[in-house]
Amino acid sequence: MSESPAEQQSTPEAAPPPHPWAELAAEHFDLLRLAPQPIDRHTGTRPLRFVELGRVERHNKEQSVLRLSIGLPGQKVRKEQNLLEVWADHRNKEVRFGPDGGLQLEPQNRGLGRFLLAQGIAWAKQRWAHYRLEGGALPAKDALDNEARLRRDHVLKAQGFEINYLDNLQLKASYSAGRISELHGDWHREKVQLVGLQEAAAMLEQADQNLRRQEVEIRKLEERIALYKREDSGLRFTIACLVAFAVFQAGLLIWIITR
Question: Whole-angstrom Cα distance, residue 194 to residue 167?
Fold first, then answer.
């Protein structure tokens, strides 16, 4: 039985299939060292930490993509978190940064935002510095707190992006730039450091040596504590004997006097 025109119009259109590169998994991995920083009143403690940088890229005649991700050992994050994508459109000679929801990073306020943007900019500048940047809207959720908004704007401006506000409350904003060559591929290297294999191996060896040294020191301390306990037990026994002898002497003296 055929559908009526009204039924055909009410049938929802099928969603377009996802891009074949939309769910690319990381293929190359590096180690990042997040340097310890002072306690932040919003994000709390910021101790020394190591995270994983994942990287994958694809190319064809029409477009290219770089996908960077941050992995946290022993901690799961949402699918849209810790992700940066850079898409290059070779037909229109434009570069677009994603995802559309903006950078959602964990841990926060550790320099990872500038680092990921710098990596994406350097990748695009190396290949298509003459391409133009496709600007976009900034998520309003990043401007709910004035300090968070200022921190976001500082990161983007430091990389060469321009911020344009669309309302007096500075809630709606967009970013833009000219050509990719105008962007900056640097970051706070004292906050985020790429750790090579040899350096990572040296760090592990140093950590193992420190653990062995601490084990020796702990063993010596335990031996000294055991010695002090033995001496303490001997002193307690001696004191108990002296107290008992003193009580006996006092009792004997009292007995002699009363006799």
Answer: 39
258 belongs to a structural domain: no
Q: How many CB atoms lie within 10 A of CB 200?
A: 14
- Residues contacting 31, CB < 8 A, separation 6+: 50, 51, 52, 53, 194, 195, 200
Residue 103 is assigned to a structural domain of this protein: yes
> What is the CB-side half-sphere exposure of residue 40 using CA atoms within 13 A?
12
Instruction: Return d(Cα 85, Cα 65) in angstroms, integer.
Output: 7
SS3 state at 256: helix
Tokens representing residue 185 in the block = 């591929």
What is each CA distance from 257 to 94, 251, 252, in whole angstroms?
114, 10, 9
Structure confidence by residue, pLDDT tens digits, 68-127: 999 998 888 888 899 999 999 999 999 999 888 888 899 988 999 999 999 999 999 999
Give the domain range for residue 163: 21-195
